[in-house]
């Protein structure tokens, strides 16, 4: 399977390097490194202490009270590969995830934020043989192959004598209904426990009291599953699913097709063109701009501002997005923003042309893609959910969260 970090429109602000990148592909390891639970040790025994201190032995420790800890030893599993995700840059983490700050272009914007992503957030175990089922579990093993659930963490004994628990901010998963296809609909967010059981959400993200166990649902990741680590949401794509999604080449062809139709500014009559996928921060001269209220596409022009009648410059417009402007075509008032093509191909539900733009950020994609993401409630902070643009994580605004683009063709 392949999963992708849902923020940076195809690449991280400082470039994709090593284990920090905007997407990360999972493939079969040369040698299996999966683990499965084996022996349970009640508190304070010599074997429990040994399991914790043994650097070659994976174990999970559940602290029940000062004097009581249950240690579950894990043993090697030849049939699975384990991949770990978290904020830590230590070697057990395969995919280093940083907090997603909505709409921020550079990492300098994100440094000051206190991260809510756990250092060892979750682990995914994949079968090494077909059908290569991938299962997700909360928490990852640290450098000494331990997971510690402290006194404050929610934990409990299961009916078969095993232990289970939840991590501080939790690992939430949503499987869309009808997979990740043109017919996709949002599913229900659930919380995944340390042992991979499925629960309804807690009252608040880090409440002591767990939700109810949902027996009928599974920790198996499917194409389009969303994994929320409280600060970043990841999209899981399967190899088979990705084979049906547009490629970056296909998106580039669609970009050239729009530009070949020579859309024009209905006011300045100049030809507009979407810039190449690599250029995606400052608008250029030919960049299309849109009135988000009505969808009329123009070139940049500096009149029609409501606040004052003087001429605006583009930098000011960039600095103060959302300032109201009146569309010269239809008089509708609303934000006036530059349009950018969504470059992360794996967020597209189909290969249709980019005809719709998210509001208020102006990222452009196909209609089905815009409709789908506008209906997905993404966890925000520790207690709210809202729809956001998958390309930049900005919260959607306006009635639908997106607008259909109305291009004017050349007059000749």
From TrEMBL:
Q: List, in alphabetical order, the GO biological process terms annotated in this UniProt record.
A: protein K48-linked ubiquitination; regulation of Toll signaling pathway
What GO annotations for molecular function exist for this entry? ubiquitin protein ligase activity
Q: Where is the Pellino RING domain?
A: 258-412
Give the Basic residues compositional bias ranges.
18-31
Outline the extent of the Pellino FHA domain.
8-253
Q: Where is this region: Disordered?
A: 1-38, 305-326
Keyword Phosphoprotein in annotation:
yes
Keywords on record:
Phosphoprotein
Report which residue ranges the record marks as coiled coil.
none
Family from the record: Belongs to the pellino family.
Q: What is this protein called?
A: Pellino E3 ubiquitin protein ligase 1
**What is the species of this protein?**
Salmo trutta (Brown trout)
């Amino acid at each position: 399977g392949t999963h992708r970090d849902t923020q940076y429109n195809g690449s991280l602000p400082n470039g994709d390097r090593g284990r920090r990148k905007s997407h990360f592909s999972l493939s079969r390891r040369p040698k299996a490194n999966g683990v499965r639970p084996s022996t349970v040790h009640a508190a304070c025994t010599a074997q429990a202490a040994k399991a914790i201190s043994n650097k070659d032995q994976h174990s999970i420790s559940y602290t029940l009270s000062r004097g009581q800890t249950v240690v579950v030893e894990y043993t090697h599993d030849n049939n699975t590969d384990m991949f770990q995700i978290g904020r830590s840059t230590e070697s057990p983490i395969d995919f280093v995830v940083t907090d997603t700050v909505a709409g921020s272009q550079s990492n300098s914007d994100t440094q000051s934020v206190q991260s809510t992503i756990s250092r060892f957030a979750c682990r995914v175990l994949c079968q090494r043989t077909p059908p290569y089922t991938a299962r997700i579990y909360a928490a990852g093993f640290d450098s000494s192959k331990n997971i510690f659930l402290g006194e404050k963490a929610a934990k409990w004994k299961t009916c078969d004598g095993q232990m289970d628990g939840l991590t501080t901010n939790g690992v939430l998963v949503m499987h869309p209904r009808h997979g990740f296809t043109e017919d996709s609909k949002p599913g229900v967010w659930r919380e995944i426990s340390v042992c991979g059981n499925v629960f309804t959400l807690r009252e608040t993200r880090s409440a002591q009291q767990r939700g109810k166990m949902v027996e009928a649902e599974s920790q198996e990741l499917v194409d389009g599953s969303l994994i929320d680590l409280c600060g970043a949401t990841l999209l899981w794509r399967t190899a088979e699913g990705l084979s049906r999604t547009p490629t970056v080449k296909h998106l580039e062809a669609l970009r050239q097709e729009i530009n070949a139709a020579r859309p024009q500014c209905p006011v300045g009559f100049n030809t507009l063109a979407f810039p190449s996928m690599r250029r995606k921060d400052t608008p250029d001269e030919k960049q299309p701009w849109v009135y988000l209220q009505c969808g009329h596409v123009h070139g940049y022009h500096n009149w029609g501002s409501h606040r004052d009648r003087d001429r605006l410059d583009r930098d000011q417009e960039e600095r103060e997005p959302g300032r109201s402007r009146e569309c010269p075509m239809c008089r509708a008032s609303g934000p006036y923003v530059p349009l950018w093509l969504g470059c992360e191909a794996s967020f597209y539900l189909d290969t249709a042309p980019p005809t719709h733009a998210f509001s208020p950020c102006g990222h452009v994609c196909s209609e089905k893609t815009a409709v789908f993401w506008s209906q997905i409630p993404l966890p925000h902070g520790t207690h709210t959910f809202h729809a956001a643009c998958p390309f930049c994580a900005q919260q959607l605004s306006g009635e639908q969260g997106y607008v259909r683009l109305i291009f004017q063709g050349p007059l000749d």
